[in-house]
Amino acid sequence: MEFSAIMASGATSSSVVSLCWKPNSKCTDFKFLAQxxxxxxxxxxxxxxxxxxxxxxxxxxxxSINSGFSCSAATLSPSSTxxxxxxxxxxxIEEFESISEPIDRVKRLLRYATLLPPxxxxxxxxxxxxxxxxxxxxxxxxxxxxxxxxxxxxxDSEISKGFCSxxxxxxxxxxxxxxxxxxxxxxxxxxxxxxxxxRSRVNTWYNVLISMQKRTKALxxxxxxxSPFEPFPSLVVTADGVHAKGSYAEAQARxxxxxxxxxxxxxxxxxxxxxxxxxxxxxxPEVQGVLTAAQKEWSHIYISxxxxxxxxxxxxxxxxxxxxxxxxxxxxxxxxxxxxxQAGFGEVGxxxxxxxxxxxxxxxxxxxxxxMNYLEMASKDSPSLHxxxxxxxxxxxxxxxxxxxxxxxxxSNVVQTILxxxxxxxxxxxxxxxxxxxxxxxxxxxxxMTQMTDEAIAMVHPKHNRNSIRSLLPRLHxxxxxxxxxxHLFGHEVVEKINEMYCDAFLTAHFEVPGxxxxxxxxAKRRGMGIVGSTQNILDFIKQRVQxxxxxxxxxxxxxxxxTESGMITSIVAAIRNLFNSAxxxxxxxxxxxxxxxxxxxxxxxxxxxxxxxGQNPVVLGDINLPVVPGVSSxxxxxxxxxxxxxxxxxxxxxxxxxxVCQNLPDNRSAISAHEAKRFKLHTVTGKSVADIGCEPILxxxxxxxxKQLPEKLVHQILNRH
Length: 722
Prior knowledge:
Layout: E1 2-9, E2 14-22, E3 27-33, H1 42-45, E4 76-77, H2 84-97, H3 102-115, E5 137-143, E6 149-155, H4 158-171, H5 176-181, H6 199-223, E7 234-238, E8 241-245, H7 247-253, H8 260-273, E9 275-280, H9 285-294, E10 301-304, H10 306-318, E11 323-327, H11 330-342, E12 349-351, H12 361-365, H13 369-379, E13 384-389, H14 394-403, E14 406-409, H15 414-424, E15 429-433, H16 436-449, H17 454-460, H18 466-472, E16 476-478, H19 492-501, E17 506-510, H20 515-526, E18 530-533, H21 535-552, E19 556-563, H22 569-583, E20 592-597, E21 604-607, E22 619-621, E23 624-626, E24 628-630, E25 637-639, H23 655-664, H24 690-707, H25 712-719
Parallel strand pairs: 1-4, 9-10, 9-11, 11-12, 13-14, 13-15, 15-16, 17-18, 17-19, 19-20
Antiparallel strand pairs: 1-2, 2-3, 5-6, 7-8, 7-20, 21-24, 21-25, 22-23
Helix pairs in contact: 2-4, 3-4, 4-6, 8-9, 9-22, 10-11, 14-24, 21-22
Domain Fe-S metabolism associated: 93-214
Subcellular location: Plastid, Chloroplast
Pfam families: NadA, SufE
């Protein structure tokens, strides 16, 4: 049997849709009132439910005439079926908008929950779970014989079930292209009356829709015979261990559980010689594996982002360490040396891990004539403030500060620093650098804020509203010629693959990623499925989501796309395993799998010896000559099109170098003199010490972090610049 629908419209504010069975059947008229009194979907909801899903998408489903009819399958004339989804969605929005009291809107949502047919118990398996929902939500998807999408869903929460019910009412029976056209922003007007504390429940709208679309794309690709994307490599962490998927992940996992003898040997020499270790998250996995294990026996080992490294070095000096070894790039050891001197610990020796220069693409971008020209331009525009990323050399900070009053920032505090500066200094011009991607992302973020309400903006910064954000945009400048070779990797190819295969996963992204990846992560963040920030922000986000899953105590598979340097994996795995160990006594047998996905470009290459890659031409990255092997067969990867899955500069810090430095201290320092982080003897053009002037922007940042205000000294420098 089939039916058609004929829409008649007249001078009144209503429309009549006639749904007619064919052949030889009478038409049944349904009157839809226009804007003034939206019709409830309750009257027609039962008729838009799909039949029981069959695992064969091509198998015809049968219904008797008495089983009702499907509005979703009806043809609205003269409108086409492509207009049916927005038509249904608009009716749903109008229905909830017509209910004035929030509690009544919640009651309506719960009413929808009662109309959702229960999902068969056999369909409630882990592969049908929707990620990111506070409650358990299951979704089953198929394509029927007419090429239309069929959705069935269920949840153990009545609120979440109501959300699912509404979405199924809109999308069940739609064509695949109409399902894919719907945007998460289209659901923003669906105010169901939940208070702010229930925001995680509201995210069910978005996460179920994303899952519907992902599975729709997968079914379409299967029917069209398209080869699926090859998945990114990943590590799956469980309470029982770690499982690597793909050779790249195997290379990362190899050192997660280091040799006990190596760990004990390192701890012995560190303890005997009172040596502290500060290391960056991006360190080589072999080094991080040993250091993470050694932390349990020697407390003066700390792995962190660049901001905390110098602070921890000071703490180690206070606790009696006579030496601090720095595992990072050169600007990090410079900062540690200078901050220790500022804190009165000039006698504590600071050592780096190579007798060669350990560079950084961002730090080098800020040391170019182009960047100095950028600052010269800033110095002519008063009042001006230079906000410089911490990943720059002390020398650059010093020369910059003499040209333009300067404050250091990190990826976690840069937005607050800029907003506070604009709020505190009238008509200020802010000049950010050197990371071009971060600069563009900051500008994009502030432009998005102009679309927010004043109340929402005040939650970001209490001194701002839409007018103030609009007024500051023309006075925000950023340098456009500096990038990090790691985060440059996350370009179009990676974003396309994430959209196709991982759109329903948790998405983490460093603030330094290109704009396309930034936008994707920000969209995920808005629905509670992502984080954009520093390496520490990323680690904290993953820990929080894993802890929430442990607290729910139900079987779950959490998938995180790691949008930063792959060296983070050691700290992430250690943190997850600590959470698992803490929860063992209360887990009640729930199985939690945490998958960390490495979005490695398909043209990534491994660092290896020249002899192992005959016929391959080396790739030059900065001052490093990298023999390469195409693909991700093992180890660390850099792409010939730009970007690295792991930082080749950071990988100049080796375990053998650390042992060499430690074993030669303190009696044979001459053998490691090239490893010592020397004090700056240079002076600026005004005759001041580079070390002293270079530290001042860092100290300004410290003051800002403590008080949430620009320090008076910096404000005075801005306003009295000549």
